[in-house]
Amino acid sequence: MTNLLFKWVISAAALFVVAYFVPGVSVSGVKSAFIAAAAIGLINATLGAVIKFFAWPARILTLGLASLVINALMLQLASAMLEGFHVSGFWPAFFGAIVLAIVNSLLRSVLLGD
Fold first, then answer.
1. How far is CA 60 from CA 53, 73, 84, 97, 98, in A?
2. What is the pTM of this model?
3. C-alpha pair distances (Å), 12 with each of 36, 39, 49, 90, 110
4. How far apart are CA 97 and CA 91, in angstroms?
């Protein structure tokens, strides 16, 4: 349970980093970052998992590039559902998904040893 909470905090912090470095992505505050991190996690675990399962041929043919597009669409979906977290279009979502994955991975490896 503690590990899950640390991962949630790390994801919220990663969203702040994305909002700082990617034009077109904004987070209005700490509460919004935590809600957005939870929503993105739930969306990726449910709808994202289903889409990635059915899109595996495209993911193989594009050498994983389709996964980036799917992750960008999941960010846009979270943005459409939430107040306080905004992604202004596909390209900010695309680059935001890349930065979010990198920052999440770096923070988790440094802080949790994952």
1. 11, 18, 35, 19, 18
2. 0.89
3. 7, 11, 21, 21, 16
4. 10
